[in-house]
Write a structure and sequence with these properties.
Structural class: mainly alpha
Number of helices: 16
Strand content: under 5%
Shape: globular
Radius of gyration: 22 Å
Distance between the termini: 59 Å
Oligomer: single chain
Length: 461
């Protein structure tokens, strides 16, 4: 009975959505709940799917969204890739087990994948809420970053300390890990590696907001705070990424920053050409050197870093043949043969291939790499933004590159999944509607005259 606490966000989301509108509940309930509350605590329903905090809010929000006539939604080809990925993963698990075992995965694919994608696609760009979405993410994850200092110092997760008694027997598999003699902060995101992905998103969105002039010069509640709020929020989100002590996330953040830097240049195509040339001239030899470094085997590794790289190299050697035994649908969530000494699959692409096969993997790559490439092409075709750095296309592309790099070293789970699909829905709507970046930056909006006409009609030139 105590686990019914996970249903409270759903009740709140439905009440606010029916009293106001779906986007009101999306920004004031669903998004904060997703970012602040753990995703590994569930309300247990015998014989039915077991929703988490954010999934219960998502179900209620989608019901009200459908009752309102799907406001803001417009079909695009990308929708088929999202549905295809969710369908392939669900069919894979059903084939590997049965419906009663697969229902939670099917429920998760729907309300942690498809529906967050549709909601973000429909409620952000069509209603002019891009700054509201980014600010909500930044403020929520800044609060998480500050609270994560408790875990860094004490080695105890404060979310688990507060919530474990309401969800007996749940969440114990997620323990605080240590590196350099310090606790690695995971917060509500289950593991420090997953927290690193979330903090990359927060930092990149914060830098975009800062460059766009979206924050005021003073916070109303902290009028005497030295320096501008944007400075502090950038510092906090960067600190939140740092205290995860996740080296893969640090590396991914560097790669993402390099791509975002292209969007800050006046001559973007030349800058992009330099990046591509560097990938060929420097990247290929570096990749070959890394393969030589990682292929020595764990027993011949000279230090812990080389041993970690060798382990991930061995994973591909061990499991690619096992994946090819069930190429189209995979083995299901946990049913592939385990290689002794290599039970942890620290590579989401390999893990996805094992779990759900080549079909689901192809759809996922279409969403990840396909959206990133389309964002870059879209950004390169637009004029340089003012102020520099306010290009949403390059910001989102940098986040996607960060995702790509980091999930090559860790699985993608918990809140990183709905966040990925929301970003995909936002990016799709942004490109689908041919939004003009210069007309929607914070600095540009502050120069636009306010429209005080009593009756406003849409004029199209």
């Amino acid at each position: 009975m105590l686990s019914y606490l996970a249903l409270l966000p759903g009740i709140a989301a439905f009440l606010l959505a029916t009293r106001h509108n779906p986007q009101y509940a999306f920004f004031r309930v669903y998004l904060p709940v997703l970012l602040v509350l753990p995703d590994y605590y569930r309300c247990i329903f015998p014989g039915l799917p077991d929703p988490t905090f954010n999934q219960s809010a998502c179900v209620a929000l989608f019901i009200s969204f459908a009752m309102s006539g799907f406001p803001g939604y417009r079909f695009s080809l990308n929708d088929l890739w999202v549905i295809g990925y969710a369908a392939c993963a669900s069919i894979s698990e059903y084939r590997a087990t049965n419906y009663s075992d697969a229902q939670n995965l099917m429920f998760g694919m729907l309300f942690s994948g498809v529906v967050p994608y549709v909601l973000a696609k429909s409620l952000i760009e069509p209603f002019g809420n891009r700054f509201l979405f980014a600010k909500t993410c930044v403020l929520a994850m800044s609060a998480v970053s500050i609270l994560n200092l408790i875990e860094l110092r004490m080695g105890t997760n404060p979310w688990q300390l507060l919530l474990w008694r309401f969800f007996p027997g749940q969440g114990y598999e997620w323990v605080t890990t240590f590196r350099f003699g310090l606790a690695r902060a995971s917060g509500p995101y289950a593991h420090a590696l997953l927290a690193g992905i979330m903090m990359i998103v927060a930092f990149r969105l914060q830098r975009w907001l800062q460059w766009s002039g979206a924050w005021p010069d003073k916070f109303r509640l902290l009028p005497r705070l030295p320096y501008k709020p944007a400075f502090w929020l950038s510092l906090i989100t960067a600190g939140g990424l740092f205290i995860t002590l996740a080296k893969g996330s640090w590396l991914a953040a560097v790669f993402g920053a390099g791509l975002v830097a292209v969007g800050r240049r006046k001559y973007r195509r030349k800058a992009m050409g330099v990046i591509l040339a560097a990938m060929v001239v420097i990247g290929i030899p570096a990749f070959i050197a890394f393969l030589n470094y990682a292929s020595v085997g764990r027993e011949n590794a000279k230090d812990a870093n080389q041993e970690t790289a060798a382990y991930r190299y061995e994973l591909i050697e061990h499991y690619i043949d096992i994946a090819n035994q069930q190429p189209w649908w995979g083995w299901g969530l946990t049913h592939w043969p385990k290689v002794p000494g290599a039970e942890s699959i620290d590579n989401h692409f390999l893990l996805l291939l094992l779990m759900h096969g080549y079909l689901a993997s192809a759809f996922f790559l279409l969403l990840l790499l396909g959206t990133m490439v389309r964002l870059l092409v879209y950004g390169l075709r637009q004029p340089a933004t003012a102020p520099p750095g306010s290009s949403l296309a390059f910001t989102l592309a940098g986040i996607y590159l960060g995702y790509f790099v980091v999930i090559a070293t860790v699985f993608m789970g918990q809140q990183t999944v709905p966040m990925f699909f929301m970003l995909t829905g936002w990016a799709e709507s942004y490109m689908q509607r041919h939004s003009l970046e210069w007309a929607t930056t914070g600095a540009a909006q502050s120069r636009l005259p306010s429209d005080t006409r009593p009756f406003k009609f849409r004029r199209v030139l």
